[in-house]
Write a structure and sequence with these properties.
about 200 residues, alpha+beta, 2 domains, three-stranded antiparallel beta sheet, 8 strands
């Protein structure tokens, strides 16, 4: 194998390894693979075609699934600009019974991409609102609860998430109320009701 091929493969591997083996066509170009070379690797089974311009290194498909691979794919779809949020973030944190039928993502206000498979929320998140996971970012339990309350999520789902987050020491009552206040009266009301349900 030529030095060039080894270098390209190593560059792509470094990128894909932090994304559970997934990578975009643009990332492959950055690693040195032409579109013709990408077609070759997909045709010969070296790369698995996941979606349009989205691939996965074959070696990673043998690893046990962690259940959140689709969140990595949506992060790549958004070019890393989307943050998993709302009820999807509750599910990612295993809080309560949230099981949304579509993926919730928070994106910056100027974000233009669209898909029927996701619900996009527009907000500017701070670093303290977000946690890094392997291959994607997700809002913190505190932020996820407050944003679900603000979005008028089912109160039973909210009650369960608040109860578990408090029990696991992920949030405090004071910080929950403060986070809800920042998102407005609807968020405050939802969090207050969830806290009252614990009494």
């Amino acid at each position: 194998m030529s030095e060039d091929r080894v270098g390209r493969r190593a560059a792509l591997w470094r990128t894909a390894a932090g994304q559970r083996g997934y990578f975009t066509a643009a990332q492959a170009v950055d690693a040195g693979y032409s579109h013709q070379a990408q077609h070759y690797h997909a045709q010969h089974g070296n790369w698995l075609v996941v979606d349009r311009a989205l691939y996965r290194l074959r070696e990673f498909s043998d690893l046990p699934s962690e259940g959140d691979e689709q969140l990595v794919c949506w992060s790549l779809w958004s070019k890393g600009r989307a943050v998993v949020s709302h009820a999807t973030a509750l599910a990612a944190h295993d809080l309560g019974t949230a099981n949304p039928s579509r993926i919730h993502l928070t994106v910056p206000r100027g974000f233009r991409q669209k898909s029927d498979a996701v619900i996009l929320h527009r907000a500017e998140l701070t670093q303290s609102d977000v946690e890094d996971r392997m291959g994607y970012r997700v809002t913190t339990p505190l932020r996820a609860i407050a944003e679900c309350a603000a979005a008028d999520e089912d109160q039973d789902v909210l009650d369960g998430a608040v109860s578990e987050a408090l029990e696991r020491g992920m949030v405090s009552r004071r910080r929950l109320l403060h986070a809800a206040q920042l998102l407005g009266p609807r968020a405050e009301l939802g969090v207050e009701r969830a806290l009252e349900a614990l009494s």
